[in-house]
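BUG: 3D viewer hangs when loading the predicted structure for this chain

Environment: internal workstation, default settings.
Expected: structure renders.
Actual: progress bar stalls at 90%.

Input used:
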Amino acid sequence: MGDGTVDAQRRPRVRRPREGNVRAVKDIRRKVRRAQTIVPFGVGGILDLRGESFVAADTRSWAASAERVESPRLARKLGVQELRSAPVIPSGKAAYASRIGPTYVRFPKWLFCPQCRNMLHWNPGHEVRDRQPTCGRCPGRPQLAPMRFIQVCRAGHMADIDWHRWAHSRSEDPSQRQCQAYRLRFLATPESSGLEALRVVCVVCPASRNLAGISQKNILVQTGLRCPGTHPWDSEADEADPCEEKPQAVQRGASNVYFPITHSAIDIPAPAGLSEDDESAQKVVNNSLWSYFRDADGGPVSDNLRAVIALQCGVAEEFVEAVRRRHTAEVAPAPTAADSDDDLSIAEWAAFSEPESVTNSKTFSVRRTDLGIRPDDPESLRELGAGISAVVVADRVREVRALEGFSRYEPSSGDGEEGEGGRVVSVNTHARASWLPAVETYGEGIFIAVDEERVSAWEQHPLVRDWTRRIESNLDASFKADRLRGKTGPELLPRFVMLHTLAHHFIRQLSYDSGYNAASLRERVYARSHAPGSDLPPQAGVFVYTAAGDAEGTLGGLVRQGQPPNLAETLIRLLESAQWCSQDPLCADSTGRSLANLNRAACHACTLLPETCCEIDNSLLDRTLLIGEGDVPGFFREVLQAAIEESAGAVELS
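C-alpha cells produced before the viewer hung:
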C-alpha cells in the first residue's frame, strides 16, 4: 500500500526490557498512516493512542531515509528545495521493522494514576521501548493517564501547566506558598460536579486548588504563570524563544490547540506537442534549484547553480541563462504546466480545459465527456446543458499535499502581521526549512466547467453584485482575508461563491450516489479573479475528486457517476436538495454565519462538509447564489424551477 503504516517512534530511544523477562505482553507498537503525518498528526499535532498522548516533533527528528516526493510546482510555490514523505513499513513486516518513522514525544509529561491519584512528572529517561508508563505503587501496575489541560500561546508554543504553582496559588499561609515539594495528587471529589470536583493537592502541605475557572482567558497569567517559549520536543540544548504572549489553558483535545497549514497541487504533466526547446525549458523551470538560481541573479553562487541545473537537465549553460532572462523579462506565454506563477490553479485549469493536450501520462489520465442531453429531453435537462460547458472525467490523478507549519490558539491570518491571528510556526522550529513533509495520493474525479458567457452575464446582474459585495465586506474585515484572497484572487467574484457552494452540494450528493462517504472526497474550485490587464483566461469550474493512499488509486465510483446519464441526474438532485434545509428560515435568511460571518445561507444541516473536504475551511458559501432566493437570482434558478414544474406535472398525471 502506498499509504502504509509509519512506525511512530518516541524520543529518546531507551533501554529494552531484560532478556530474562519472558512474560507475554500485548503489542502496543504505535503506528500512524503516512497521510496522517501531514494532517491531523503532523508536526505539532497531538496524537492520542490507547490512553497515551504524544506530540509530533519537528522535522529535525525525521530519519534520513525519508522518501522524496516529486512536485516541482508545489515546492517552487512554497520556496523549498524539495518535499519528503515518511518511510513506510512494508505490509506484514511491522513486527520486524526498525523505528524509522517520525518522532512523537510524550506530552503532557504530567501524568496521574487513576487508582491512587498520585501525579508524576514523567522523565524521558523512564521510557521503556514498547511499554506504557505505569504506577509502581499500586497493585496491578495501572497505566498512568495524561493530564487533561495544557497551556498554549498565540506564538505557537505549548507546554505543561505548572501544577505545583497552580496548587499553591490560592494559599494564604506563607509556609505553603514557599513549599518546594513536587508531590501532588489529582483528586476527584464527590461533593461537587464539573471542574469544581477536580482538585490538585499538595501531599506535603495542605495547599490545594480545584480546576474551576481554568478555561477562563488569562487565568494562568493571574496565577503568575508565563509562557516558557518552548515546544515539547525541544532538548535542553535548544534555546527558548523570548515570548511575551499570554499563555492560555486549553483542553488537550481542543480544536484550537492545532491549526495545520497545508498546501496541495495536482500533478500536471507537460502538454503534448511541445517543441524540444519547450520541453527543455520546462525541465529547467521544474528543477528544484530553479527558484534559487532565478533569485541569485549576479550573486556569488549563480554560476554554480547554473552549471548544476544544466548538468541535471542535460542542456547547455547558455540555454539555462536564456530561460532565466526570459522569465526575468516577465514574458507572459499562455499558461502551461511550465509557468512559474505562484497560483497553482492556473496550470490545473489549463490542463482540465484542454484534456487532449496531455497524453501518455501515468499520473494524469483525463478524458472529455458530456451530460448526454438530447433535444427532446425535459426542459430542466436542456437548461442544465446550456449552463454546463464542459465535463471531464479523471480516471487517475496524483495529488501532493505538503505541511508548511501550524499555529495555536487562533488560526493564522496568513499575512504574518502581529496582533492578527496566531503566529505560523515552521515545521523546523530552529532553522529555515529547506524541505517540507508531504504525501502523494492517487485518485479519480469529475471536472465541471460552467458556460463563461452565461456566468459573466449573470454576474452583471445588480442584485447579484450587491449581494456578493456584502460577503466581500465581511471577508475584508476577517482575520482570514489574506489567506482566502490567495484562493479568490484580488476580487471576490459571484462565481466563486456560487461554484464553491455547488462543489459542496456536489460532494454531499455524490456521497449518496458514488459509494464514497463525504469525508473521502475533496474539492478544488477554479474561479479566481485576475489582476486588471492580465492575459490569463477566466476560470469557472469545480473539480471533485477522491485521493486514496493506494498507489493504484481508487475503484472508479466517481468516474461512473461522471458518465451520462448519471451526472445530469446527480446535478438535478443536488439542486433540488439545495432548496431545503432543516434550519430554514433561519439559514435561508441569514446575513452572516460561521466564523467571521463569511457564510450566508449555508449551515451544517445543508451545505457544510468535513474539514478534509473543503480547501478554505467551509467559508464563502451561500445557497442563494446557487439556486436563488427572493429577488436575487441564482445561477441555476431556471434549472430548478423547470425541475419543480416537471415534478408537479408528473404528480398531476399520476
